[in-house]
Queue: 3 jobs
Job 1
Amino acid sequence: MWLSALLALACTLGGCAPGDPAKQAEAIRSIAAEAALLAHDAGEEGSSTETFVREHAEALERKLDEVRSVVDDQRLASVAADVAGQLARLAESPGDQRAAKTSERELERAARRAEELAK
Amino acid sequence: MSKVFGIALGILAAIGGFVDIGDIVFNVAAGATFGYQLLWAVVIGVGGIVTYAEMCGRVAAVSEKAVFDVVRERLGFSAGLVALCAGQLVNVLTLAAEIGGVAIVLQLLSGASYAQLLVLSVIGVAIVLWAMPFEWIERVFGYCGLGLLVFAVGALKLHPDWAAVAHGFAPSTGSGDRWVYAYFVVGLIGAAMIPYEVYFYSSGAVEERWGPKDLGLNRANAMIGYALGGILSFALMISAGALLLPKGIDAELLGTVALVAEAPLGQIGLILALVGMLFAISGAAIDSTFSGAYNMAQFFGWEWGKYREHAGAPRFTLAWIVMLVLAFAIVVTGVDPILVTELSVIFSVVALPLTYTPILLVANDRAYMGNHANGVVANVFGVLYLVVVLVIALAAVPLLVISNMGQG
């Protein structure tokens, strides 16, 4: 039991991403949906700060990279790439409200595609 | 009047100081995964910390002995040493998580690099520990932690389904993955009852030279302060349940927690949430650093206490410096502070019986406590919670493995 716990621990601390494609799709959907929420606030005057948008978008990008490194499914990889692109845009231009609104729509679309692939 | 004012200030500090990174992580993740279904587990956890904080505060006020004095006396050296090692392991892990959490929140506020902010966080905690008087630490961090009340306002603005919220206060087996649900039950109770809180609370009572005349203050702080502090936990879970669950968002980042306040309240909500988290987490870092040093000093019979000044308690001072260095060594490896938080909470659950059993025994000992020994109500709750603690202590590690740390 303790060995299993330690192995689970080592895997978790090492950043093991989910191996099951459905779980990968769920993880990508979660990141896309959260990024869409972040983009929504970035697109509204006085709803967020540029520092927060940039830093949180970068944190989501790092989390997405962990999942992308184990994704085999081409369709899912394509969705993940789209999400990564939008997150990079948000991180690069956190104060650009028009771009943030475009990103929000793209990210919502990506979240729906990932949700379909998770089924 | 000034006494009432003092009690009110103490209660406010207890409310603001109730939530730490473990509560933040588990409550928001539970809300994002199960909505309001696990509110009852928070009630159980808050009841547990109220019961045992009141008990160990009373023991400290009457006998002038803090938790690890009692552990050493009741369990003996060998078993006491096991309790000490378990308690210290959990303290160091908790401290590592809190320091990492402080650095992340500072990063979200300032945009500076995480590595630099880690160093700054450790130095900041060390300066506060070295220079700030005990009651100032308690009050400043407790009051500023009240910024987390923004989540209560946010929860109202998110218009949750109040019928479902009310339903969440009734214990249930939950829907969805049963193992993940059980893991969150254990994590929520463990986060609320994390042992460093009672180590710090009882040692603080000795530091502030509480006596039998302060038993009313003890009861007010524990029962009203901690119970109202539970509102912050409810607010975090309800906000996450209303905002994150419908969108299918997992809560695995501290930034996600801030987003929960930003979405309904905008920039002001974001800033209040980040400042509240900063003070709540750094206050908990200070408490857990001191707790580690208190435990060592009480167990080995060293001079201890912030009121003695550094030269008067050199081994105590060295102990908290070592705690900080060890925690920094863990978190500087790049390990995710959120994962360390989850592990520290789960391992603390395993250590809970070693802390709470001796407190219950001493609180019942009339030779120690005289007329202030446990009454029927304190004993009923004490025994009930000891059973709860034993059950979750046995279940914690298996659930960690089976539920894949709550990932399913």
Note: Chain A has one domain: 21-118.
Job 2
Amino acid sequence: MTGIMDKVLSEVSALDPLSFTAADVSRALGEDRLGIEDFASLLSPAAERFLEDMAKRAGEETRRYFGNSVSLFTPLYTSNYCDNGCLYCGFSRDNKIRRAKLSQEEIEAEMSKIAGSGLTEILILTGESRKMSDVEFIGGCVRTAARYFKNVGLEVYPLNVDEYGYLRDCGADYVTVFQETYDPARYAEIHPFGPKRVFSYRFDSQERALMGGMRGVAFGALLGLGDFRKDAFACGIHAYYLQRKYPHAEISFSLPRLRPFLNGRYSGETISERELLQVALAYRIFMPFSGQTISSRESRTFRDNIVGLSATKISAGVSVGIGGHAEEKKGDDQFDISDPRDVAEIRKALTDRGLQPVFNDYVRV
Amino acid sequence: MTDELMIGGKRFNSRFILGSGKFSLEMVRAVMENGGVEIATLAIRRANAGGEENILDHIPKDLTLLPNTSGARNAEEAVRIAMLAKELGCGDMIKIEIIRDSRYLLPDNCETIKATKILAEEGFIVMPYMMPDLSAARSMADAGASAIMPLGAPIGSNKGLLTKDFIKIMIDELDLPVIVDAGIGRPSQACEAMELGCAAVMANTAIATAGNIPMMAKAFKSAIEAGRLAFLSKPGRVLHNGGEASSPLTGFLEDSK
């Protein structure tokens, strides 16, 4: 199954972001449909002074494909037990934090409370521990979620095809897996132990999810772990090649960048908002039909503005601790959030900008 | 002279079908009114019955709804979405949209033919969105379609009638209304489609992305009406290959007598 991985890694290793010129960027922006080289040029330092032109083009593409619609959702963290040693993450196994896992009753209470806010889409997350949050536990969460929500996403540890199939049958619709970094050497360094060390198994997660019958898959590189231009390029072409192989798949991108976390001592490369925006715009122009989610890691000003340009989905009423919607949260957070606004506030922010908050854009059939 | 659009036994005075999915919901009424719209499409996937920002709550009650099966990847899913539309009280018209390509959003004619047959047998007035292919359109007509909706260009592209020649063939050969769906980006392109003989034009992105949305709806209304009048009045001959020779090319026939 690693055909796409080999292709992506080979193209990334051949990429030199400094090799692109202003003329390359200008030509790319003049193309109707961008090729892989064009995409790389938009991520290069040469494209930095074209940011305004990129924003204009990205905004046009977003309006063309999505009109002024912006989807709303919220994540629910169900457990923060983890078997991995990711150096950059608050849930990392050896990090001394309050660990917790919600019971199925608590999960139902949380979901009921979230559904009361009007949201019809939920993203279920767990820490990456098969032992503490096994597939049956996740299946229970999904079955409950399918009763309260029209669209159920999963962001859990990578699974096998039959497990994705089981969760689809429970009511899950799409799967998000972040590769974190697409540089295998860097990946090995920052994942010193745990099942996550196996780069290729994680890389093929989206493909296994589609083989298991999931409708859509989401991709993300945690920007700041490695060379962010190369990671963003790899992430984009990972999605591109997978979509070519599975043309029906609904594709979306997330744009996480490193955030501080409790007891955190890891410091990667700092990605500025300007650089983050460049990546977001490049994804939009390269794959104009793809969804794009903007995290509550980012500031309200940044989020409010990027939804008109490239992002099509925004989280609202976010708690990144374990629980925290219906009852006091039971476990500590994965990272610090910057935008704590609830659903009503996000909704107002969107309508104030002439955008249409969309609570439902999905029918499970 | 009355010039009504007939689809599945229903009569309409307007030939402007509006897609409703890309506007702010409070704009919907203004667009309908300015465009003189009588039929509006509605993505069932956007319906949020009993919930927040439900598009169904914003569509004027006097409009005819044309729910679509957007999100369906095969005939079976399209049929299920159509049934859901009926349960939601959206009437008996259905626009079949089956898309298995998330990059270009091009329709799958084979699955669309299958869904057309099932839904026509279920009593729906079926309007399939399709790639302009005469043979597939004939199969859809045989399967019970009430109108055929070929794309002019990829959805959202605003590129106009890229498939003009094939649409013209379908207009000439089919006994059903042919309605251009997707790709129409400007009023002039809508006018061109109507002048060609299309029964109606559907537009969404072109209006949703305009600077002044109600005014653009009005412009489309005028263009569609102008194109229709031009079609009905049978346009005069247009010379495509330069001027007309003042001495007839066949004059030698007289000389040789």
Note: Strands of chain A lie at 69-77, 121-125, 151-155, 174-180, 216-221, 250-254, 291-294, 313-315, 356-358.
Job 3
Amino acid sequence: MSAQAAPGDKPLGQSPLASVLPVAVLFTATACFLLPLWYLFVASTKSQGDLTTTAGLWFSDMQFGTNVADTVTRDGGIFWTWLLNSLLYAVGGAAVGTVIAAMAGYALSKYAFRGREVVFNTILAGVLVPATALALPIFLIFAKVGMTNTYWSVLLPSLVSPFGVYLARIYITSSVPDALIEAGRLDGAGEYRIFFGLVIHLLKPALVTIFLFQFIVIWNNFFLPLIMLTDRKLFPITLGLYTWNSQALQDPTLATAVLTGSLLSVVPIIIAFLMLQRFWRSGLGAGGVKG
Amino acid sequence: MSVQTANRATAAATATPSRAQRRSERRAIIGFLAPFGTLFLLFYLLPIGYSFVRSFFVTERDGAFGPARDAWGGLSNYAQAISDPALLSSVGRVLLFGVVQVPVMLIIAMLFALILDSSLARLKRFFRLSYFVPYAVPVVIGTIVWGFLFTPGLGPVADFFPVDFLGDGWVLWSIAIIVTWTYAGYNMLIMHSNLQAIDRDIYEAAHVDGATNWQIALRIKIPLIRDAVILTGVFSIIGTLQLFTEPQVLRSISTSISSTYTPNLLVFTAASGNAYNYAAALSFLLAAATAVLSFLFLKFSERWAQ
Amino acid sequence: MGAVLVAALSLAACGTSGPEPASTACARSSGKVTLSFWSWVPGMDKAVDMWNAENPDIRVELNAVAGGNQGTYQNMFNALKANTEPDLAQVEFDMLPSFRLQQGLRDISKCLEPDAGDRFIGFAWDQATFGGEGVFAIPQDTGPMAMFYRKDLFERYGIQVPKTWDEFRVAAEEVHRKDPSVYLTSFPQRDVGWFEGLAWQHGASWFNTEGSTWQVSVGDRPTTEVADYWQDLLARHLVTPLQGFSTPWTKALADGKVLTWISAVWGNSTLSTNVPSTTGKWAVAPMPQWSGNGPSAANWGGSTTAVLRGSEHPYEAAKFALWLNTDPKSLELLNRSGGLYPATKDGIELPFLKKPVEFYGGQHIFDVFAEAAGQVKGGFAWGPTMTQTNAALADGFGKALAGDATLTDALAAADRETQTAMRLQALEVKIR
């Protein structure tokens, strides 16, 4: 949307306060929202001693290089392992999860069969079941089959995105014309070919939305890896930093590692997110209410 | 013509499919549903069922240190849960939290969505993105950083405000600050997207009728994005009842967060204490309560819509 | 949905939740052996390297985990449940009963010589063997307590080093009179182990078993007396409720606002690391005593090396655990890197503990702790749900510090919550 005055809005200059106040509010809010990230940035440049003695919001002496070196080499370079694990769980998990959710949404949208609505409503009910309520029984089930503390034990549950199926179904229903599918069938293409070759190209915004949504869900899923994983080499970055943070009382040098590590892991995500957020918005918008 | 209209036309025009066509369609349905369906069965339905079944068992043992066995306990886990003071106080706490934090956050989100939607704001993209950034930060990391901010001597927030953020009276609201920081921008974005989809001619008509921008906001915009507000409301309620990550991460620096601070912390504590059957009962109760509350909220907001 | 329930029922039904009790036989393994070991002591890797270099056939692999109460005990219990536990684990003394209750510990008495226990300090061996029922862990380090005090500020305020708790109270009054912003010591809300040590010193006995019934008495007479004593000091503002190990607490120490810290031997490095500006000004004296039955001391903390239930090489694991905690080179290494104070009678007499410590004005501080180690009473047992007991005490202390209750109320609450937690574990338990 452009910043020009849109038709229907009152002309500017009606009241100076009315035009200044909202902007002031917005700027103040921006400062509040970005404050923690600014603090994170500043704090990761400080040495451990300076953390407690210098003002929080401005730099002292620049130790960023040292801090980064310390963070990535500590404990045998486990920081890299943690980052790669997170990539596996979150990117891998969300990617596969998106594809299978789209497939399920497609089936529920474009094929009529008995019990379709029951299936859909069951999946929808799944949206209301929080991941934390499932973590404990999933752990107990994996314990029974002796598969706790493995990559699969965190990855497999992460592939399930009921909300993704819901989004996919709505989006497909409203954006994929039956005529396209019919045309494909008339051309002799198989059902899978139609989906993966034709339909999926129309789904890009929805796919990105589902991917980002599931990515965030997996990223933020703390309870499951917390009770499932005991081997530090399997931890995602969130669990790894949490572990370091809990030990910071005994080992104060960990504070800088935690802060620097947080910065290093957060910056790429933020950048990726900002680049992709327009997809996400248009995807949600299409599935949302029209005026 | 919208896709739906076109689809109806196509359906009318298409001949009924052949037998072979239907067989291949059936195979396709199974094929498309199977991957998600199997995983959904394994990691949603089965765990809920397992949790449900486990909740009817209790633990028994002989001797002071004897091995434990499971025995049928009927509803005793549930009876114990209902009279468990730890559970009751944790539920009360999250309800209090929810009643305050969710409306405040949604109002903030709505306010900013409305401001950004009006042309009074320049630099819209910049503001939108900066409010959204916290959502991209993993909750664990965000809480760790806020923990530093709240620690006297380390964080500017603690040093600037004369409040003991991590102390008994305030820590719940410090958690509320963290949750609001994380999700307000996300909720705002949802509302804003929906606002942007509204046909602006409606506003022009309203202006012609003499409505002020305020009245347009209250009477037209908000009702039109009702669904988005409801959606964000439901997810916020679900999130509130599940509160776990923020208090758990802050436990290492705040002495005021007990091991049973929120219902999920209680589940975690029970499981850590190896009282798995009781933890399963609690887990199930929590999931059921969340579902019921969300459902009620949806029903209630449907009535608002009328 | 029906299919799901059937599946769930069959999953729940197959197998009981507890395994067979661990066999007490101790067979040697043949060939090369690899042992997994979870520990959080800094520098443990060097000790393990030392062992591996001298014992090529018994290789120990260390998993450097977070502290026990920072989630590692939870992980260990989960591992036990999933049968993926390591061979050896670091377990603090107060957690041994919890592990034993979950059938996690292996009785290695048959893996050791009958007199192996003589090497260890009395109370440590007592707790590791549950009063002689079996050898469930090898003591690693202990935390005998004494009083760290600011020698220079004692002189300034004209305080004599208090030898009894009565004298301690008088000294607190004196200090507070001379300067209301200065306190003799602090009362930490969350250092429950500190309070447990104090109760232990006075003869408390919180957990006892009579046959298969447990008796809980956190609020027994000695503990109540200790609680009342401190309640009095708190009510009269003679001690400050700062939380130990916190930034405000270290700041108060640096500023000379808190004059003493009754703490364990490992606290000596806490002070020197966190309050370096006060070097040379501290000294160590024995804990104040209750008048009555001879000198007694207290213990705070300490841990063991336990051989866990599922280990397939108990003989080798026991051998390593014994070496780790008795070999002089290992003890010196663990002391230097990890700040561990030995649990063996010979260990506390080793040369590296006989040196003067500059932070304490050149005093041979470890002599004080060695004497204290010998004075710690035996017969103090921990309960099988110490996590909950400690949490209840900490929460109760919090209320007391806020003025909403007394410390004695916290004891009663701890009794009740311990009983609830133990009943959840299907134990028969009475509050005495």
Note: The CA atoms of residues 176 and 199 of chain A lie 7 Å apart.
